[in-house]
Amino acid sequence: MEKWSEKTLRRWDERHFWHPYTQMRFYRKIKPPIIVSAEGNYLIDIRGRRYLDAVSSIWCIVHGHSKKELVEAIKRTADKIQHSTTLGLANVQSILLARELSKLVGLPRVFFSEDGAEAVEIALKMSFSFARRKKKMKKIKFASLQNSYHGDTLGAMSLAGENPFTKEYKDLMFRVVHLASIYCFRCPFNRAKEKGERECSFECFESTEKVIRREKGLSAVFIEGGVQGAGGIIPFPPGYMRFLRDETKKRGILLVVDEVATGFGKTGKMFGFEWELDKKDNLPDIVCLGKGLSGGYLPLASTLCREEIYSVFEGEQWEGKHFFHGHTFTGNPILCALALENIKIFRSEKVLEKVGEKISYLESKLKKFLEFDVVGDVRGRGFMWGIEFVERGKEPFRSDVLAGWQVALYMWRLGVFVRPIGDVLILNLPLSIEIREIDFLCDVLEEAIRGFQKRVRKEVSRETSGRK
Questions:
Q1: Cβ 119 vs Cβ 290: under 8 Å
Q2: H or E, element range at 419
Q3: CA 129 → CA 215, 287, 312, distances in Å?
Q4: Where in the chain is the domain with CATH 3.40.640.10?
Q5: At a CB cut-off of 8 Å and minimum separation 6, what does 327 contact?
Q6: What residues pair up with 108 in beta bridges, in sequence order?
Q7: CA triplet 387, 389, 393: central angle to 5 degrees?
Q8: Facing residues of 144 across strands?
Q9: Distance of alpha carbon 143 from alpha carbon 122, whole angstroms
Q10: Rounded to an integer, what distance in angstroms lies between the CA atom of residue 221 and that of residue 240?
């Protein structure tokens, strides 16, 4: 690769590269590091500075960067084959991965795609056709949770409903039934106490049951895998997923679990639904995978479903019943070989058997940050955590304070890369994180929060004295 100066690269970056989910004016002001390589759990910038990747490069890295076995799987396959369509053809790698995922999840049919949002769109189309063809439903509805996030395509945005990410496009979106929020810190039923204490009668369960019972034409309920991710890292209340499975099953409604962010060990189990659903008779009807499916190295996703759903697309060639969906790189052999190696590493290195100690240690360290006045809530599961900053009590900071960004930028300077969503600092760690790296992360986080709290107090003191 030709070497370019940082100044030149930054000029071209700011002139040409429109970054996702990024206010470019702010980006130009803060001048983020330009990354040139990565190894282990670290990103390395053009100046040689190392940053602990505490968001797993947006929640996808599983075994760390530059994992030798994963890199070799890419090279080995690319030497033999680069691409072969799966529209009416098969390749060895996609066949093997489909079989492997079917065993891993417990659902027999696998449809490949390239990213999580597409996996969700596929689930929408599958469940729509199932309702139309099998159940002869004319008016078909979908339901999802408030504060949910399922991607940025139109169907996925519709599931999320109107929020800061989607409000610009609400006129493009279709109506979705939204179930009661499970955001315990900001409980819509006013049951949450201060500082993470809970006094809960699970009114969200009762409210959800009423909506599901009332809504006619409900085809499927879409949920994330036990933790709402971009909604602010909101763990489901205990028993909620099992409750939803029971309610949907009783009424013949499909349960779709979006494991794009939660799958492949991020909650401490291979899939988030495994905390409450078993592989005997309580599986979801459809499961969406992405991000960690490839170990986080290349874009790959999949949608798995029950045989009953797949069967409505079976028929004679002339009938036109087949599933009309597919992209150019669906089932790409390099991507599938990479995912097979990822699954192999989980088994050979007994990855999930080793994460319990790390998770317990991480949780104990993070919960201590509740002692800070500016920290309202610390919540999460496994390697997914959110720290919500508040001005006082539960009152959020003014949006122009950029509370989450103030803490994040401080951490960048100290060698930890994080990214907030609003006033929630998001942590999404690779499963390969080590105890000493958790210590480093928490030391930096403590210094950043302490510095932010000090600045906030100074500003409050200045405003107070100015009014006297």
A1: yes
A2: strand 419-421
A3: 19, 16, 8
A4: 68-348
A5: 113, 114, 118
A6: none
A7: 120
A8: 178, 222
A9: 16
A10: 13
142-169 pLDDT, tens per residue?
999 999 999 999 999 999 998 999 999 9
Bridge partners, residue 218, by sequence: 141
Q: How many CA atoms lie within 13 A of 80 on its CB side?
A: 12
3-state SS class at 7: helix
Joined tokens for residue 69: 């076995």
Per-residue burial over 315-343, b if 16 or more Cβ lie within 10 Å, else e, is eeeeeeeeeeebeebbbbbbbbbbbbbbb
Structure tokens that stand for 234 in this block: 């909101």
Q: What is the C-alpha to C-alpha distance for residues 51 and 339, in angstroms, rounded to an integer?
A: 26
Instruction: Report whether 5 contacts 47 (CB < 8 A).
Output: no
> Are 161 and 130 contacting, i.e. CB atoms less than 8 angstroms apart?
no
Whether this model's pTM surpasses 0.90: yes
Q: Are strands 218-224 and 141-145 parallel, antiparallel or unpaired?
A: parallel
* pLDDT tens digits, one per residue of 107-140: 999 999 999 999 999 999 999 999 999 988 888 9
DSSP 351-378: HHHHHHHHHHHHHHHHHGGGGSTTEEEE
Q: What is the DSSP annotation of 87-113? A: SS---HHHHHHHHHHHHHHS-SEEEEE
DSSP 108-170: SEEEEESSHHHHHHHHHHHHHHHHHHTS--SS-EEEEETT----SSHHHHHHH-SSTTTGGGG
CATH superfamily of 33-66+352-467: Aspartate Aminotransferase, domain 1 (3.90.1150.10)
- Euclidean distance between CA atoms 387 and 369, whole angstroms: 8
Residue 117 CA from chain centroid, whole number: 11
> Torsions phi, psi of 45, nearest 5?
-95, 180
**What is the per-residue pLDDT for 466?**
60
CATH topology of domain 68-348: Aspartate Aminotransferase; domain 2 (3.40.640)
